[in-house]
Amino acid sequence: MAxxxxxxxxxxxxxxxxxxxxxxxxxAVLFNNAGVGAAGPAWMATLDEWxxxxxxxxxxxxxxxxxxxxxxxEQGRECPRCQHSVSGRLVAPAGSSVYCASKFAVVxxxxxxxxxxxxxxxxxxxxxxxxxxxxxxxxxxxxVDPSHFGI
Length: 151
What we know:
Layout: H1 10-24, E1 30-31, H2 47-57, H3 59-74, E2 81-82, H4 97-120, E3 130-131, H5 135-141
Parallel strand pairs: 1-2, 2-3
Helix pairs in contact: 1-3, 2-4
């Protein structure tokens, strides 16, 4: 399947989800991550560059979450969602502060999704969960057993 999709546009991501479900009947795994950037110090980036980077890197994840996750939960089985960025955890090279700011936001959004799933979905029905390379350590630091979420 090929589908043109500008992840910064919610309507494009909604259409991608619609096509995915029409074509396959389900979404087994969601890789919900995209990245664009502009080189240079943050104070030199134009507002249009900030909007473009935040639009793709952060809002793309938001649009993917809104378009896919409710349907994935309804599938009633394990449906991993992968979204993360090393740049949201580590200090990246000079000149990438706007990019890193957007990726730090994605990491915060992803970590809080674990809590949203835990509060929103009864434990016995929590088959849709977040996969993140750093989430197990995040949970352990907070005294939560990652296996509770199937991680």
